[in-house]
Design a protein that fits this description.
This protein is an alpha/beta fold and 205 residues long. The chain has a single domain, classed as Rossmann fold, CATH 3.40.50.300. It is built from six helices and six strands. The termini are far apart.
Amino acid sequence: MTTTYSPIYKVILVGDSGVGKTCLLSMYVKGVIEQTIPTIAVEFCTKEIELYDGTKIKVQLWDTAGQERFKSLAMTYYRKAYGILLLFDVTKRSSFNACKNYLEEVRINSDKKCVIYLVGNKIDLADERQITKEEAEDFAKKENIKYIETSAIKNMKVNEAFTSLLNSIYQIKKEDDKSKIFINNTASIELKKSKNFNNSDTFCC
């Protein structure tokens, strides 16, 4: 039996213009890549998915513009984000180099528990690769984030990238909720104990 977990998860795709954020999102949500134009500022869509344990959640997916003039606007959307997919194009060195700055911006403007995945897109263009899998993995390991490679055009590991991220978010939130319940229960017990005594109570030893 499945259950619904709330609230809606907010996930943001960031990265330079042309790395394939819109295509990746379209393939994940619609199963096809429609003709796209560069994203203007920010666009979003919602999707209901089922996690590994059968829990159903709704996710709000935000596609941010990679153009420099929209960066300051995109940063305001990092707040209250549960997850970030940081994309680069494996055939374009500059898009990979930019990831360090994006990562700094995300960490400054998002919650410290926000889950971040580094995504190397366009792996179908193997002959044009400028960034090896090993180099990207080393960067991700150094920054303590997960790395996954995708091809939006060929639908390679697209669903896996989103599903893995969302399951990671779910596990963190579930542990947080358990901690909150424990703290609340502990506070309730202490409060009940304090009510058992009054100023007339005396103690001896």
